[in-house]
UniProtKB/TrEMBL annotation:
Keywords: Sigma factor, Transcription, Transcription regulation. This is RNA polymerase sigma factor. Residues 26-91 form the RNA polymerase sigma-70 region domain. It comes from the Bacteria. Pfam families: Sigma70_r2, Sigma70_r4_2. InterPro entries: RNA_pol_sigma-70-like, RNA_pol_sigma-70_dom, RNA_pol_sigma70_r2, RNA_pol_sigma70_r4_t2, RNA_pol_sigma_r2, RNA_pol_sigma_r3/r4-like, WH-like_DNA-bd_sf. SUPFAM superfamilies: Sigma2 domain of RNA polymerase sigma factors, Sigma3 and sigma4 domains of RNA polymerase sigma factors. Residues 126-173 form the RNA polymerase sigma factor 70 region 4 type domain. CDD domains: Sigma70_r4. It comes from Kiloniella antarctica.
Length: 183
């Protein structure tokens, strides 16, 4: 049974008030979801708060999941919007503005070689300098290993916009890493 099949079965039970299924569902996604949320906010307490809000939403709305996407896509979408809402409350800067020209990038594995232990501090620093929308697509693509089509569903934008954001995120990462690592 795949993770999605397991999660879907758990959602059906959760929609009927099954607390054990909810606990199992929570444990299945807790770490990945927390890491995703924390990467956006860089605040452990707020990330934990949003994690709990996300799972509370799952408890309340489990019956609304229609199976048109993977369960993880639905769940990460809830977390993404709760995180964006929190970020909007913290700043007046619009989180979804992306004033870049459309440029398509079809190479999601281009950064894989950069993810080594000795470079992780530089990578984390550079990730934190990205715009929120760019950091989100990079996090979902590289650390959650999601395809662009699922990322588009999570962040609610066209797939080509995801590709554009990824292109610009990679360019910014290359510039930042080059500066930090003297390349």
């Amino acid at each position: 049974m795949t993770e999605n099949d397991t999660a879907f079965s758990q959602l059906k039970l959760i929609s009927k008030g099954d607390e054990t299924a909810f606990a199992d569902f929570y444990h299945l996604f807790e770490k990945r979801l927390y890491r995703f949320i924390k990467s956006k906010l860089n605040d452990s307490f707020e990330a934990a708060d949003i994690l709990n809000e996300t799972f509370l939403e799952v408890w309340r709305k489990a019956e609304t999941f229609e199976g048109r996407s993977k369960v993880s896509t639905w769940l990460f979408g809830i977390a993404y919007y709760k995180t964006v809402d929190r970020m909007r409350k913290r700043t007046d800067i619009p989180m979804d503005s992306d004033n870049f020209p459309e440029t398509v990038d079809d190479s999601p594995d281009a950064m894989a070689c950069l993810l080594t232990a000795e470079k992780s501090d530089h990578i984390k620093f550079c990730l934190d300098t990205l715009k929120a929308v760019q950091r989100a697509v990079m996090q979902l693509a590289f650390f959650e290993d999601l395809p662009y089509s699922e990322i588009a569903l999570i962040v609610d934008c066209p797939e080509n916009t995801v590709k554009t954001r990824m292109f610009h995120a990679k360019q910014a990462m290359k510039r930042c890493l080059s500066t930090r690592m003297g390349g």
